[in-house]
Specification:
33% helix; 28% strand; binds guanosine-5'-triphosphate; seven-stranded mixed β-sheet; alpha/beta; globular; binds magnesium ion; 7 strands
Length: 196
């Protein structure tokens, strides 16, 4: 598995029909500021996605075209970087707007093969997370959980959290990751691109 190139396509609010190609898409979703954009940059080993220390900075769904090699073949995938949800300072109407956008986008888009649910290893799941998980399950949409920012905690802490999450999400796979140290990068990349 080798990334050949990654480039920004565009920011959208609904499925990009003009692309007119059947490129498998992987959606990166999760709370505001958890590290979705940093994860994409780490995975493709390039700074294509905008990251920010200001929570709620990403407002559009940003699409990236990834070219990679698998089994000697050149393949393509789209990584979609979602705006973070649940930021406390965002008014309720905007939160609902976010929910409509993500649901609309995912429901209309048959190319989405998997959702990568990015989660800060230091946090506990709450009602928003539960709602989102129920929604994925209802639609039988495959999703995987990635516990990120593991560099901020001990190895034991992350391992324990992973065990807890395994029970919580049941059938989904759970990964640990750090954009800062690169921990878990290889495994996650293989998981994402093998599924594509
Ligand atoms: N220590 C550490 N910091 C990280 C990691 N991943 C992201 N960060 C930091 O967390 C902050 C938010 O990162 P982003 O990648 O912009 O997060 P995001 O989920 O895309 O944020 P929104 O798009 O605003 O929802 C930045 O300051 C990053 O440098 C990580 O693995 N370890
Ligand atoms: Mg972002």
């Amino acid at each position: 598995m080798k990334i050949l190139s990654a480039r920004y396509l565009k920011g959208v609010i609904c499925p990009e029909r003009s692309l007119k190609r059947k490129t498998p898409e992987i959606a990166f979703v999760g709370r505001s500021n958890v590290g979705k954009s940093s994860m994409i940059n780490s995975l493709v080993a390039q700074k294509v996605a905008r990251t920010s220390s200001t929570p709620g900075a990403t407002r559009l769904i940003n699409l990236y075209l990834i070219e990679y090699e698998r089994g000697g073949l050149r393949q393509q995938a789209i990584f979609s970087d979602f705006p973070g949800f649940g930021y406390a300072k965002v008014p309720k109407e905007a939160q609902q707007g976010w929910q409509k956008m993500i649901e609309g986008y995912i429901e209309d888009n048959k190319e989405i093969k998997r959702v990568i649910w990015v989660y800060d290893v230091r946090r506990e799941p709450d009602y928003l997370d539960e709602m989102l998980m129920e929604w994925f399950l209802d639609r039988k949409l495959p999703f995987s959980v990635v516990l990120t920012k593991t560099d901020k905690e001990s190895k034991g802490f992350a391992a324990n959290k992973k065990r807890l999450f395994r029970q919580y999400v049941k059938k989904s796979e759970v990964f640990v990751f750090s954009a800062k140290t690169g921990e878990g990068r290889k495994e996650l990349l293989a998981h994402i691109l093998d599924a594509g």
